[in-house]
Amino acid sequence: VKAEIIAIGTEILLGEIADTNSSFIAAELPRLGIDVYWISSVGDNRERLLEALNRAWERSDLVFTTGGLGPSEGDITRSTMAALVGEQLTLDPAVVEKLRARFARIGREMTASNIKQAGIIPSATFIPNSRGTAPGWWLEKSGKILIAMPGPPAEMRGMWENEVLPRLKQLPTGSVLVSRTIKLWGIAESAVNDMFLPLFSSANPTLAIYAKADGIHIRIAAKAPDENIAREMISPIEKILRKELGNVVWGSDNDAMEDVVAKLFAEKKLSLAVVEGFTGGLLMNTLCDCPGNIHYFKGGLVAGSAGLLNEAGIDYGLTENPEALAVVIRRHFKADIGLSVTNIPTGEQPAVNASGGVHVGVAVGGTTRRITLSSVRERARAKRWVVSAALFELFKTLEAVGLEQ
Amino acid sequence: VKAEIIAIGTEILLGEIADTNSSFIAAELPRLGIDVYWISSVGDNRERLLEALNRAWERSDLVFTTGGLGPSEGDITRSTMAALVGEQLTLDPAVVEKLRARFARIGREMTASNIKQAGIIPSATFIPNSRGTAPGWWLEKSGKILIAMPGPPAEMRGMWENEVLPRLKQLPTGSVLVSRTIKLWGIAESAVNDMFLPLFSSANPTLAIYAKADGIHIRIAAKAPDENIAREMISPIEKILRKELGNVVWGSDNDAMEDVVAKLFAEKKLSLAVVEGFTGGLLMNTLCDCPGNIHYFKGGLVAGSAGLLNEAGIDYGLTENPEALAVVIRRHFKADIGLSVTNIPTGEQPAVNASGGVHVGVAVGGTTRRITLSSVRERARAKRWVVSAALFELFKTLEAVGLEQ
C-alpha cells in the first residue's frame, strides 16, 4: 500500500508553524505495512491544493491530509476534496445539531462559518473529533482512500488514536512491520556498530542504531505476514543483543529513563534528595514530570551564586566534593539516596555557570561514588546529557540495591 | 520570486527524524521577498527524487534542497541533480585535497566514498561547509537557481548563515518584507483582536496574532522596496499598539522573558531566591539557561513530598500561604526578592502533584502579593504556562522597583 501525506496551511509555508503531524503519521505507518513515498506541504490556495490532491490521488493508494478543516475563509480542504472527486457538498443536519450543542455547552454562539464544518459529500463519512469542533473525513472512491484530519496536533492525534488507526488496522496490506527498540547508556554508537556488524547486514529483520539524548537506541524491525511471526523473528536477536550488551541496557520501546527510575524507587521503597549545580533544576524538573515522583522524591536544592550553599545550611567547603555534597543533601532532606550534580572547580567559582567537567555524586547506604563527565556539546544539549547520565547513575544504583546485601 | 523546498531522506518518510530544515528555511525567506509555494520530502530514491526535482525546476525560480550529500550509497542528491540538468559529474582536485586535509586533522582515514563529496558539474559551484565534510552546491542554469545543502541541521544552519543568506540578499527580488513582533502577557487573543480590529484588515503592513507559550505575539509585517521604507511603515503602528496595550507588553522580536528579567535584575542590582512546587524546577532551570543568571540568582528549593519544607528548615505551616513562603525563601537565601510557586491546597497535600489552582507569591521590599492561576491545560503545557506567568510577575515587580520610591 503506497501512502502520501499532505499538510495544508499557508502558515507552514511561511515557517510560522512547523508541520509535526506528517512526521507523526509517517512514524505510525510502517508497522501497518503501509509505505510512505511522499510528504508535502501546500498553502491555503485552492488551485495548488487541487493540483497536489490530484497528483496524490493518481500516484498513491492512501492519502492523509492535515489542516484546513476549520471555520475560516482560508479553510478549503473540504470544498477542494469535493472538487477532486467531482461531488457536491451538502450539510449533514445531525452534525449541525451536534455542533450547535457543543457550542452551547462551552457557552459560545455558533456562527454561519462554523456550520461549514458539517459539510459532507456522498463518498465521504465523518470522522469524530473528540478534542475540537472540526470532524474529519474518510473518503473512499475508485479503490482509493483519502483521510482528512484537523491541523492542531492534539486534535489530530486524538482522532488518529481513537478513529483512524483502528480502521487502518482492518486494511488488508499483506504484511506488518513490528519493531523493538533497546535503549543503552554509556556506550558509543561506533562500539555498538562494531559489536554487531554481521547483524546489521540482515535484510529482515533489519537493525538500525540511533544516537538520542537518552543514549543509543538499537531498533530491530521485522516484516512478516502477521505480528506473531514478526515477534518470533525479533526475539532471538533481542536475546543476543541483551546478552552481549549486559548492563548498559536500561530500557526498551517507549521507556523514558525517569519512568524506569521511578518504578525502581517504588519497588525498592527508597527516597531521593537532589542538589543541582550545572543543570539548574532540569534534573528535578524531569523527575517531577513523572507521575510517580511523589512517592520517592523528597525535594532538593538548585545552586545559585557562590554563597548559596552555605546560606542554605550546607557547609560550603564540601561543595568541591560531589560525594560529600550527596551525603549532605541526603541528610538534609532525610532521604535514602542523595544525588549531586555540580561543576564547581574551586571554592570560589559559582556552581551554575562554570564550564568544563561536571560531576555527579551519589550517596546510598554507607557508600558514595562520583562520576565525572566532560562534554563538548553546547550548553542546552550538555545539560540534557548530564541529566541522562545522572538518571542512569540512579538506575544502576537502584538495580544494585538488595543485590549487595 | 517563487521558491520551493525539498527535504531528501528516507528516514524522514519513515518518521524517524522530523524535517526541521524546511520550516527554518521557510521562516527565513519572506523577509527577503521570496515566496515559498511548496515544501516536500522525498526518499533516497533516484526515480522519485528526479521526478520531484523536475517538477520543482519547472514551476519554481529557486529550489532549496537539504540532505543526501553524505558519503554513503544512499546519498544521491549530487548525481540526481547532474541528471536533472544533463551534465557530467567530475571530481574537483582542490576539494579532494581539502577533504583529505580535513580527515587528516581529525585523525580519520578518507575512504573512496568520502571522495564522492568532491563531485561537481559545470553549472554548479561549491558552497563551503564549516561544520561538516559535505560541501553544498549552488547551481544556476536557464535563469533558475538550485541550492543544495546538507541534512544535519547544525551544518545546514551554519551554511545558511555564512554562505547562502548573504548571496540570497543580492538577488533582485524587487521587495523586502520586514517584520516587528511585540510580545504580551496577561491578555487574551480575542481581546487583542477586538482592540485593533481595523488594523487587522490592513493589506500592507499586515498584522497577525499568535498565541505562544510566552503569551500573545503581534507581528507587524511591511513589504516595501527597501528596509528603511518598510521600517517607516511599521513604526507608527507599533506606537499605536504600545500606547493602547500599556503594561501587558514585555518584549519584542527575539526577546525571551528570562533574558528580559535577567537584564532588569542587572539594572536594578537585585537578587532572587525561588521555591518551586508545581513547576518542579522548570522555572529555575529556565532562569539558569540565561547567561546573566549568576549575577542575581542566589538559588532555591524544589518542593518534593509532604515533609520537605519542614525538613529544609522552613515552617511547614507557611506553605499554605504563597506570600509567606516567598518571604521565607527570600530570608533563607538572603535575597532581595523571594518568589514561590505552589499549588498546595491544604497543609496535608503534597506540593508537586496536586492539580487545580497554582499560586505565585512575590516578596519584595516590605510588600508581598500573590496571583492565582487556574489552568485546564495538560500538565507539561500548564507548567510552561505557570513559568511564563511567574516570569511576568518578576518583570512587573522589577519594572516597578525604583518607581515607587
- Estimated helix fraction of chain A: 25-40%
Form type of chain A? globular
Mean pLDDT of chain A: 88
Which strands sit side by side, in order, in the main sheet of chain A? Answer: 2-1-3-8-7-6
Q: For the CA atoms, what is the radius of gyration of chain A?
A: 27 Å
The description of the largest β-sheet of chain A is: 6 strands, mixed
Largest interface: A-B, 71 and 71 residues
Taking pLDDT < 50 over at least 5 consecutive residues as the criterion, the unreliable ranges of chain A are 346-355
What is the SS-derived class of chain A?
alpha/beta
Structure description:
The structure is a homodimer of 405-residue chains. The first copy, chain A, is α/β, with parallel strands linked by helices and 405 residues long. Chain A contains 15 helices and 17 strands. Chain A is 38% helix and 25% strand. In chain A, β10 and β11 (215-224) form a beta hairpin. In chain A, α3 crosses α4 (77-85) and α11 runs parallel beside α15. The model of chain A is unreliable at 346-355 (pLDDT under 50). Chains A and B meet through α2, β2, β13, α12 and β14 of A and α2, β2, β13, α12 and β14 of B.
